[in-house]
Amino acid sequence: MIANFKLILIAAIALLVFTISWIFNPQAFAETLTCPENMAAIEGGTFRMGSDEFYKEEKSVNQVTVTNFCIDRHEVTNAQFAQFVLETGYKTVAERPLSVEEFPTLKPKERQPGSLVFIPPEAGITEVEPLSWWHWVQGADWQHPQGPNSSIVGKENHPVVQIAFEDAESYAKWAGKSLPSEAQWEYAARGGLSKMTYSWGNQYSAKKANTWQGAFPFFNTEEDGFLGTAKVGSFPANGYGLYDMTGNVWEWTKDWYQVSHENKSGKTDPLVENPSDSLDPREPGVAKHVIKGGSYLCAKNYCSRYRPAAREAEEPNTGTSHIGFRLVKNIPVSTSQKSLGEVQQNL
User: Fold this and answer.
1) What is the DSSP letter of 155?
2) In the predicted model, is pLDDT for residue 295 greater than 90?
3) How far apart are CA 144 and CA 147, in angstroms?
């Protein structure tokens, strides 16, 4: 009888220790969740969303909760997108002529397929108008990101770009996943860190992410080793094992853009899902989605949005040479996970 009691006591202690290790080691808990291949399991929780130290659209810091989810370890690559196109015959927005309904003032020759491409000023120029480095280039698309004479050959493992929101959603449906909410994306990007500016800490480092070094848009010192996009996984992963949550390319989210995210305070899995709720004061009446993460074009002197809290607005109908995406998949809350939550509350 005494021996049996000792065995039961030992088993109970072992279970308690295991449970506590889950609580204080989110990564250990996440590893018990099941996710598709090449996705990381993220244990849900409450975090401080936003920042009060940079741009006004990031204010104010609020407590927001997300539930368990899986997220791609890296951005969707050219090779992955090519497989989708091969199986479905899908044509991206950039590969279609511009519609008369959406662009009634354009002439027929101006309706040829194309997209926006970053083109730096010519050497010797020291002053330019803001955004003048963006050019509409006919023939630019995901297979020709810089224009008809460019190619993705040899860049199969680089993130796919020139992707409009519709393209990302179509890929997500085919893959059985979805685009992340802004809250999911930011929570994952922080990698388990709290009150930190970057995904790795409080100190900027050119060796931690693919960003712009030098005076944008005039010259890039390429201190990080790259002038344009980088192969996914070229830089260290964050605390959740996720690559390129900082820099490389901006990433689409499901949320429609608003100036701040005050309406998400105290909520669980918040989402701005109605385009009528979108507002960008710079272009009133134009509904836009939130993009996150910054890109290889973000520099200290311009943009500086290579931070988890940073956000920008982007029209859904246009791709560019610095916007891509990654996907998520929600994890149902099981009985065991509910029990863990109860243990956490009791502790």
Assistant:
1) -
2) yes
3) 5
Report the DSSP beta bridge partners of residue 135.
117
Q: How is residue 59 annotated by DSSP?
A: P
Q: What is the spatial distance between Cα 314 and Cα 151, in angstroms, rounded to a whole number? A: 25
Residues 6+ apart with CB under 8 A from 267: 64, 65
- Give residue 344's pLDDT: 33
For residue 334 the two structure tokens come to 């099981």
Q: Per-residue pLDDT tens for 246-263?
A: 999 999 999 999 999 889
Sign of torsion over alpha carbons 326, 315, 58, 131: positive
Beta strands in the chain (DSSP E): 39-42, 45-49, 62-66, 69-72, 114-118, 134-138, 250-256, 289-292, 312-314, 323-324, 328-330
CA atoms within 13 A of residue 105's CA, in its CB half-sphere: 0
The dihedral over CA atoms of 205, 210, 215, 216, expressed in degrees to the nearest 10, equals -140
Say how many C-beta atoms besides its own lie within 10 A of residue 31's C-beta: 14
Cβ atoms of 74 and 326 within 8 Å: the answer is yes
Q: pLDDT: is 11 or 115 the higher one?
A: 115
CB 322 within 8 A of CB 295: yes
Q: Within a 13 Å sphere around the CA of 327, how many CA atoms are in the beta-carbon half?
A: 22
The amino acid present at 273, given as its one-letter code, is E
Are residues 312 and 250 in contact, defined by beta-carbon separation less than 8 angstroms?
yes
**pTM higher than 0.85 for the full model?**
yes
Quick one: 281 exposed, middle or buried, by C-beta within 10 A (0-12, 13-18, 19+)? exposed
Q: Classify burial at 230, counting beta carbons within 10 Å of its beta carbon; exposed 0-12, middle 13-18, buried 19 or more.
A: buried
Lowest mean pLDDT among 15-19, 163-167, 318-322: 15-19
Rg (CA), the chain: 22
CB 327 within 8 A of CB 242: no
The strand pairing partners of 302, in sequence order, are 299
Compute the distance between CA of residue 144 and CA of residue 54 in angstroms, rounded to an integer.
35
Residue from 245, 242, 223, 244 nearest 234 by CA: 244
Instruction: Please report, as a single letter, which amino acid is at residue 50.
Output: G
Instruction: State how far the Cα of 90 lies from the Cα of 171, in Å rounded to an integer.
Output: 9
